[in-house]
Design a protein that fits this description.
CATH architecture: 3-Layer(aba) Sandwich
Strand content: 25-35%
CATH topology: Dihydrofolate Reductase, subunit A
Structural class: alpha/beta
Helix content: 25-40%
Mean pLDDT: 94
CATH superfamily: Dihydrofolate Reductase, subunit A
Low-confidence stretches: none
Radius of gyration: 16 Å
Strand order of the largest sheet: 4-3-2-5-1-6-8-7
Number of strands: 8
Amino acid sequence: MRKIVLLEHVSLDAYVGGPNGEMDWINLDEEMFDLIGRLTDEADTALYGRNTYGMMQAYWPGAADKPGATRHDVHHSSWYNTVTKLVVSDTLPELQAPDVRIIRGNNLVPDINAYKKAEGKDVLLIGSPSVARALTANGLIDDYWLFMNPVILGEGITIFPHQKDRLSLVLADKVLFPCGVIGLHYHKK
């Protein structure tokens, strides 16, 4: 059975984006890229909302070919170009590319449940706060990798609003990165 693994940068006050979706507060470093590389090696599917998919599609297909591409750019671009991409959208047309499958919002829960039961590697949910909220509310995320950045935003976008039911998690791992970010890996209890 596949696992849904959320990868998300968060501020100390639990925002994943500024009020207008700003992400200029996110800290990154090579050790974090190495960890993300290990996580992508364990996954054969990426799950995105429409906006995040648009950002990813604009950058990753050719990132390895750009002058000065980093080791992370080459690795992640190769992974991105070979994995299935599930995109949650009610507005994108059905046919994007052979490796892209559109999931309509009203089919999200049954489609993800079916996908989890299929053979394969992990599914990485990268960013995509609205998708993360919906899957969390329906108990469909198995692992949470929260990259806690040393910043307080005061307001913004969160992945945990209006959580009606308590969600108990177990800390599986923690990593302190040189850039000051703490990676917290939780499993569902």
